[in-house]
């Protein structure tokens, strides 16, 4: 035990000497240091035979490392909260007025390209007060001679009345008054000589006309098509050579059902 304590004192003393080795030593201190070094080597050899000699350890330069203080991690204090029950939010639906429930916005209608615009087609030409009008045969519902007319009060000025044809009640249109109301005068009214009824598709609407002209085969390039939406929807286009209107039957029927004339 005393031997171990003596060896520890020698090691501590030697390490202290290393830390101050830059200071010059007196001759007697140098001799003492050499003596202690030899004694330390002897003690180390006795304690651990495989240990390296002190000279080998001393040969390597000793690097002094500055140990940085380790910052203490800040630990957030643990706060114990009492769980407070939170009531779930009450969702209340807005009362929808009946008017809003009934007002259903219809989906936008896509414009359907007419089949007769894809190639050649036939059209019936007729005249009213000197004005030529054409209807595609594919949208022509038939042709009837004008018969007795039953007038109905409270209708638009251009509504001529009801004509019975077999089991069908045909709603007659005073075509001249509907197409050119600004030129319709009392004189023109007395000069008109309606003889035929041009049926519009599968509807009950019929255009009164004075003269059936002819059925002509047309090519799409012979027509200046109406391209602007909302402007004169009842016109499919203008036939260049004959200088007359080609009727869009579907759009014309829509206007008639709404009680609108050409100025709508």
From TrEMBL:
SMART domains assigned to the protein according to its UniProt record, in alphabetical order: CheW
Location of the CheW-like domain: 120-258
GO BP: any one term: chemotaxis
Pfam family, one: CheW
InterPro entries from the UniProt entry: CheW-like_dom_sf, CheW-lke_dom, UCP020479_CheW
Domain of life: Bacteria
Entry-linked PROSITE patterns: CHEW
Protein's name according to its UniProt entry: CheW protein
Native organism: Alishewanella agri BL06
């Amino acid at each position: 035990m005393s031997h171990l304590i003596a060896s520890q004192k020698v090691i501590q003393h030697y390490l202290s000497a290393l830390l101050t080795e830059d200071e010059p030593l007196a001759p007697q201190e140098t001799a003492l240091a050499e003596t202690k070094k030899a004694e330390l080597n002897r003690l180390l050899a006795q304690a651990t035979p495989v240990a390296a000699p002190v000279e080998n350890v001393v040969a390597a330069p000793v690097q002094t490392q500055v140990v940085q203080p380790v910052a203490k991690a800040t630990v957030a204090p643990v706060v114990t909260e009492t769980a407070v029950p939170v009531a779930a939010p009450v969702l209340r639906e807005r009362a929808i007025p009946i008017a809003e429930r009934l007002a259903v916005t219809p989906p936008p209608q896509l414009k359907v390209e007419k089949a007769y615009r894809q190639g050649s087609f036939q059209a019936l030409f007729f005249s009213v007060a000197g004005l030529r009008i054409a209807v595609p045969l594919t949208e022509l519902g038939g042709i009837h001679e004008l018969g007795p007319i039953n007038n109905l009060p409270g209708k638009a000025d251009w509504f001529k009345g009801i004509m019975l044809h077999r089991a069908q009640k045909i709603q007659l249109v005073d075509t001249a008054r509907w197409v050119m109301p600004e030129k319709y005068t009392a004189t023109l009214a007395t000069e008109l000589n309606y003889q035929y009824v041009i049926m519009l598709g599968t509807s009950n609407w019929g255009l009164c006309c004075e003269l059936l002209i002819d059925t002509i085969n047309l090519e799409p390039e012979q027509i200046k098509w109406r391209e602007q939406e909302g402007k004169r929807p009842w016109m499919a286009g203008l036939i260049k050579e004959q200088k007359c209107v080609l009727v869009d039957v579907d759009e014309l029927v829509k206007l008639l059902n709404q009680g609108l004339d050409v100025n709508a």
